[in-house]
Design brief:
eight-stranded mixed beta sheet, SAM-dependent methyltransferase, binds S-adenosylmethionine, alpha/beta, 268 residues, Rossmann fold, 10 helices
């Protein structure tokens, strides 16, 4: 990755949450500071790359499920750096003509997303911060691209664990849910530390110096984020247990407790 592509004001020494995620996924869009911080996280939780691959596999299954429900509009908040099988590509396979908006608050993610994802008139990339959901939903470009009077699927995948309790993640999710018409859906995935509570402070410490700060939560703290949604089967489960008709990345995950929860719910 060439840091000069990010323009002035870019600090290559601050670990970036999106690029650390790219490194965990085996990507090339990361810099030494990202790799150093990610390697520290891996010392606390060596199985992170498995969880992240499962998260991307959940994304594919969730988008396919939503397309089968008739959803043709997708709003992916905290989209991350482009990787393989992004939301609009999966949507195009199962529901041609679907429209997708990618939102992120990271300027470097936006540069890459605009270059690589906005490859068709069905795709739009906008800057936005999940902590200010009203601004995202009021964005004029987003509203030209999506008809918020018709069902939309909002994806909050591996982003809510970057929202502090003091920033009211449950309230943020409720505001989005309340703005969506009936028949819309929300899909959420969130790291759970039930299996390794002792590793949580170390991981939080590494991310405290990064572009987004990880918040360690137990499953009992994550489940209320789905309140007010009619959960589709199988409810709130570990990623690999959600409608996985594809080969599971790591079957040994079945033997452990909550490590990365997900669910999809319908808006009433
Ligand atoms: C770990 S990546 C997840 C990418 C993708 N959603 C996935 O599940 O594969 C988290 C992304 O959320 C973005 N992010 C973190 N906090 C955010 C916020 N408050 N508003 C918008 N985006 C945010 C980061 O910049 C990063 O791109």
């Amino acid at each position: 990755m060439n840091p000069s592509s990010f323009g002035p004001g870019f600090d290559p020494n601050t670990p970036n949450a999106a690029r650390m995620y790219d490194y965990f996924l085996g990507g090339k869009d990361n810099l030494p500071a990202d790799r150093e911080a990610a390697d520290k996280v891996l010392r606390f939780v060596p199985e992170i790359p498995i969880g992240i691959r499962e998260n991307r596999a959940f994304l594919v299954r969730a988008v396919r499920f939503l397309a089968d429900q008739g959803i043709r509009q997708f709003l992916d908040i905290g989209a991350g750096l482009p990787t393989q099988r992004n939301v609009h590509q999966v949507a195009a396979e199962h529901a041609p003509g679907s429209r997708t908006v990618y939102v992120d608050n990271d300027p470097q993610v936006l540069v890459h997303a605009r270059a690589l994802l906005q490859d068709s008139p069905q795709v739009l990339v906008v800057e936005g911060d999940l902590r200010r959901p009203e601004e995202i939903l009021a964005d004029p470009a987003l509203r030209r691209h999506l008809d918020l009077g018709r069902p939309v699927a909002v994806l909050l995948l591996a982003i809510v664990h970057f929202i502090r309790d003091s920033e009211d993640p449950a309230g943020v999710i409720a505001k989005i849910r309340g703005a969506l018409p009936p028949g819309s859906y929300m899909a959420i995935s969130h790291v759970a530390v039930d299996e390794r509570p002792q590793a949580a402070p170390g991981v939080e410490r590494v991310y405290s110096g990064a572009s987004a700060q990880f918040v360690a939560r137990m499953s009992r703290e994550i489940e209320p984020f789905f309140d007010g949604l009619d959960l589709v089967e199988p409810g709130i489960v570990n990623l690999h247990q959600w409608r996985s008709d594809l080969p599971v990345v790591a079957p040994e995950l079945d033997r452990i407790g909550a490590y990365f929860l997900c669910g999809v719910g319908r808006v009433r």
